[in-house]
Amino acid sequence: MKDIVSLERMLEKLYEWVITRGVNMFFGVIFLSIGWKVINKTLKRIRRILESKNADPTITRFLDNVMNVTLKTVLIIIILQYIGVNLTGLTTIVASAGVALSLALKGSLANLAGGVIILVARPFNVGDFIETTEHSGVVEKISIFYTYLVTFDNKQILIPNGILTDSSIVNYSSKEIRRVDLTFSVSYEEDVIRVKNVLINILKNNELVLEEPEFFVGISMHGDSAINFIVKAWCKTEDYWTVYYDLLETVKIKFDEEGISIPYPQMDLHVKKNIIID
User: Is omega for the bond preceding 57 within 30 degrees of 0, making it cis?
Assistant: First the structure.
C-alpha cells in the first residue's frame, strides 16, 4: 500500500513538473532552435552586405565573431531565464572565472584591445611598409592578436598588437610621395658650381624624380677632407628605392666621366729625424 502511495506522489510531482517547468523547457528548446537559426541567417546577410560594400575582410571577420558570440550568449541567457533557471549563482561563478581568466590572459587581452584599436584607427594597412622600434617590413596580414610583417629578405615577423599600439610606428607608405636624401662628397680642388650642375642634370634626366615639389642640390658641409653636397629629390612612394639606388649609381658614373674625384679619408704623416752627434 505504501509503495502505491509513493508511486502516486511521484506521478503527481512529475505531472506538476511537466505542467510548470516541462512546458517551459519544451518551448524553450523550440525558441532556442529558432533563435539560433535567425542569428545565423542575420549574420550571413550582414556578411554579404559588408562584402558588397568592399569592407575590409579583417574587420568583417572580427565583427562577425563578436556579434555571433554576443547574440548567441544573450539568447541562451534569455532561454535559461524563461525555463526558470536561477542565474544568480551562475553569474557569481562566471564573474569569478572571468576575473581569474583576465589575470591569466592579461597579455592576450592587451593584444586583443590593440587589434581592435588598429582595426578602428588604421595607422597602417595591408601592403604598407612600416617600421617599429625593433622591426621593419611590409604588412602582410592584420589579425586580432598579431600583425604579420614580411621583411625584404622574405622573413615573416609576428608582432603582438599590444606592443604596436604602445610604441611608435613609422608608416612609409601612408603618403603618395617621399623624399630621397643623399650626400655626395667631392674634393676641395673641384669646381663646386660644375659639380652642382652635374647633380642637377642627373636629377632632371631621371624620369622618376618629380618636378613638383622641386628638388634641391646644395653644399651641406665643409668636411675635413671633402665638400659634401646634399641632394633632396621627391618621387612616388613606390619608386623610392629605385630612385635611391639609381642616383647612387648614376652619380658615380657621371663623376667618373667628368673627372670629378670622390675623396676618401687621408692622413698626412710628417716624420721628423733627430740626428744625434757624439
Answer: no
Q: Which residues pair with 149 in a beta bridge?
A: 139, 157
The pLDDT value given to residue 6: 64
Backbone angles phi, psi at 263, to 5 degrees: -75, 160
- Nearest 5°: phi and psi at 123? -70, -20
Q: Which residues of 97-120 are buried (b: 16+ CB within 10 A; e: fewer)?
A: eeeeeeeeeeeeebbbebbbebbe
66 residue type, one letter: V
Q: What are phi and psi of 97, to 5 degrees?
A: -65, -35
Peptide bond into 213 cis (omega under 30): yes
Sequence-ordered alpha helix ranges (H) in the chain: 2-17, 23-52, 57-82, 88-104, 106-121, 161-165, 192-204, 240-258
Contacts of 164 (CB under 8 A, 6+ apart): 114, 118, 132, 147
Q: How far is CA 236 from CA 103, 129, 179, 191, in A?
A: 47, 14, 9, 32
pLDDT in tens, 115-139: 888 888 888 888 899 999 889 999 9
Q: Is residue 233 classed exposed, middle or buried when 0-12, 13-18 and 19+ CB atoms within 10 A define those classes?
A: buried
Count of positions (residues) in the chain: 278
Amino acid letter, residue 255? F
pTM: 0.60
Q: What is the pLDDT of residue 101?
A: 46
Query: Which triple of cell numbers denotes residue 116?
Result: 581592435
| CA distance linking residue 80 with residue 59, whole number of Å | 32
Contacts of 236 (CB under 8 A, 6+ apart): 176, 177, 178, 208, 210
| Tens-digit pLDDT profile for residues 186-198 | 999 999 999 999 9
